[in-house]
Amino acid sequence: MEDLSVILVAIGCLVVLIGFTILALLVYSGLFETVTVGAGSPPIGEALIAYRFARGPYKEAGQTFTEIAHLAPDNKALGIYYDEPKRVPSHLTRYVVASVLSHDDQPVDEDLKKKFEAEGYKLLRLPSATNVVKTSFPHISSLSIFIGVFKVYPEMSAYVQDHKLCAHPYLEIYDGKTMHFMAPLARQDEFYVPEMKK
């Protein structure tokens, strides 16, 4: 009987330790991070991207993000989300996942460009938006992505509604340490890939 009590206490301690570990990881990944939304200059200017267009649940974008991370681990990654998930069924939402081949007058790595084209990626030049709704969130772990998306989008939507703005589409830019979220307030049509215009 004494042995059973010791085992139960050990199991209880283990459960408590696992709970604290999960909580610590969530806190470390940004659970209590404050989100401040505003308007201003975008995090990157004009950019050449190698992209893949898809239709379906946004959560499926992760597979393509992983693929581009293998193809160009040092490049910024970018997602463009065209549909409001609350208004469009998830199987119909449209999005782009891309690697930023160059931005702000950086030279293009022609070999990398050819590598993406050989893998079926298309190229598009995004404009330098003069004004965007924006915020950022720390990219500390994979959990940061889920926490950031959960915390950021309601705040951005509220900001757009409160200020009666027309901001679309929504972009996420990953530079390794930070996730930048933005929605252009001008030149929006230039952020729509040709597949969206058909």
Automatic annotation (TrEMBL):
GO terms for cellular component: autophagosome membrane; endoplasmic reticulum membrane; nucleus; replication fork. The keyword Membrane applies. This is GyrI-like small molecule binding domain-containing protein. GO terms for biological process: protein-DNA covalent cross-linking repair; reticulophagy. InterPro entries: Reg_factor_effector_dom_sf (IPR011256). The chain crosses the membrane at residues 6-28. Keywords: Membrane, Transmembrane, Transmembrane helix. The keyword Transmembrane applies.
